[in-house]
Design brief:
This protein is an alpha+beta fold. It has a single domain, classed as 3-Layer(aba) Sandwich (Aminopeptidase), CATH 3.40.630.30. It contains 5 helices and 5 strands. Strands 1-2-3-4-5 form a 5-stranded mixed beta sheet. Helix 4 links the parallel strand 4 and strand 5. The radius of gyration is 16 Å and the shape is globular. The structure holds acetyl coenzyme *A. The site of acetyl coenzyme *A (ACO) has 22 residues, from strand 4, helix 4 and helix 5.
Length: 157
């Protein structure tokens, strides 16, 4: 938290965050489509019920007003915790949907998001975290302490 620049805070995603622009941040990452507030909230409630499995963090920018009220979400990232039978019931973390708003990139926010998610992963007992990314983002993840491993495969339905 203290590592973020002044005016930015880390917190977990809240049920009211549709209004603070959660989807606007993700729109810079990939196609989203039309999602109503009701649909967004239904998905939020589902994730919240999966206790200890989804950790969605956001970085929020404060407004210039006296109370420094939350103005908008400028970054997000998810840790999905997978509980395996392998590796003596090992717990593996999956890093997903890292997005920093285009006008906020290059300020170190993405790196801090990764560090925060990795820290949660460690705390909940993950032995490692893994992720898929495009070649253009490889350098970013190397800076975050990741190394290349394996080959990504996909199967669309
Ligand atoms: N390639 C190489 N190095 C990079 C890149 C890149 N694409 N992006 C950032 N870096 C470097 C920075 O120069 C910096 O290095 P430094 O410490 O030596 O100065 C370091 O990585 C940390 O950079 P940040 O400022 O923390 O990066 P930023 O906040 O801009 O976030 C991110 C990077 C998340 C990739 C951002 O550009 C973004 O949101 N892009 C669009 C969405 C996206 O592609 N998300 C990743 C999808 S993959 C997934 O979710 C698992």
């Amino acid at each position: 938290q203290s590592l973020l620049p002044d005016g930015y805070t880390f917190r977990t995603l809240r049920r009211s965050d549709y209004k603070l622009g959660h989807l606007d941040v993700l729109a810079d990452l990939a196609h989203i489509g039309d999602i109503s507030e009701e649909e967004w909230t239904e998905r939020f409630d589902f994730l919240a019920k999966c206790e200890g499995t989804y950790f969605v963090l956001v970085i929020v920018e404060a407004g210039d007003d006296e109370n420094r009220e939350e103005k908008r979400i400028v970054g997000t990232g998810t840790l999905l915790v997978e509980r395996k039978f392998l590796f003596k019931l090992g717990i593996q973390g999956h890093i997903e949907d890292i997005g920093i708003k285009a006008d906020q990139q290059g300020k170190g926010l993405g790196l801090k998001m990764l560090k925060a998610l990795d820290s949660i992963a460690k705390d909940v007992g993950c032995y490692k975290t893994i992720l898929d990314c495009s070649a253009k983002n490889e350098g970013f993840y190397v800076k975050c302490g990741y190394e290349k491993a394996g080959t990504e495969m996909q199967h669309y339905f």
